[in-house]
Amino acid sequence: MGSLTPGFHGRPRPQGVALPPGQYVTEDFPVLSAGPTPRVDTATWQLDVVTETGATHSWSWADLMRLDQEEPTVDLHCVTRWSKFGTSWRGVSLDTLLADVASAADFALVGAYGGYTTNLPLADLLGGKAWIVHTYDGAPLHPVHGGPARLLVPHLYLWKSAKWVRSIRLMVQDSPGFWEQLGYHDYGDPWREQRYQGD
Ligand SMILES: Nc1nc2c(c(=O)[nH]1)N[C@H]1C(S)=C(S)[C@@H](COP(=O)(O)O)O[C@H]1N2
Ligand SMILES: [Mo]
After folding, report:
1. Confidence of residue 139 (pLDDT cuts 50, 70, 90)
2. Dist CA 146 CA 163 (whole Å)
3. Which residue puts its alpha carbon closest to atom 1 of ligand 1?
4. For 25-73, what is each residue's pLDDT tens digit?
5. Does residue 177 lie within any of the structural domains?
6. Residue 162: CB within 6 Å of ligand 1?
7. Is the Cβ atom of 164 under 6 angstroms away from ligand 1?
8. What is the atom index within ligand 1 of the atom nearest the CA of 146?
9. Which residues contact 36 (CB under 8 A, 6 or more apart)?
10. Is ligand 1 within 6 A of the CB of residue 145?
11. Is residue 15's pLDDT more than 50?
């Protein structure tokens, strides 16, 4: 080994950026979908939030666009071990979306056009940690990545970020989604490497 020159070991990264255990960094944006890409028209797009009492709140595309828009830049961590740093999005915080939704639920089951589902604690959708995003890197979100709109929950493994988001069911009890029923971890924290049940 020669002398160590700070900054010359791998490409420079913003301070504070770190890689969860067992992950590698990619510059690509891989596509991972359990089925075909549904084509969803913004003219008919709808998002429903259904509470534990059955109360339903619905947003059209125009409704979504009228809400406060945020521009999070976040790191993505997929359970298949790739991570992507510094992705830039535009969309609506779940805090904004759920502000007027009365619920005593602790859990959410997110549904997508095409039938995909994923579950997470409601607290993980709140507190500035989750968005419904429609723009990636300054352009409309491509259908393969979940356009016209997907959930973005970057502090959990990316399978929790449902593409083509269609509904959020608020529930008193936890209920496993698609991958969770197939053995993926119920919570999926990349920093604790919660990939599969039992991790
Ligand atoms: N509706 C839907 N959302 C989904 C999936 C899916 O198959 N269907 N795959 C999940 C998985 S496993 C991952 S890793 C990410 C991949 O997102 P990307 O294709 O934009 O990289 O989407 C998640 N959201
Ligand atoms: Mo994934």
Report:
1. very high
2. 4
3. 163
4. 999 999 999 999 999 999 999 999 999 999 999 999 999 999 999 999 9
5. yes
6. yes
7. yes
8. 20
9. 114
10. yes
11. no
Residue 60's CATH number: 3.90.420.10
Number of domains in the chain: 1
- The finding on whether 78 has its CB within 6 A of some atom of ligand 1 is yes
Q: Is 150 left (phi over 0), alpha (psi -120 to 50) or beta?
A: beta
Round the average pLDDT of the chain to a whole number and report it.
93
Domain-located, residue 91 = yes
Would you state the pLDDT for residue 3? 43
Determine, yes or no, domain membership for 31: no
Residue 19 lies in a domain: no
What's the gap in Å between 31 CA and the centre of ligand 2?
9
> Residue 130: which of 172, 165, 100, 79 has the closest Cα?
165
Domain of residue 119, residue span: 44-192
Distance (Å, rounded) from C-alpha 181 to C-alpha 177? 6
Query: What confidence score (pLDDT) does residue 17 get?
Result: 62
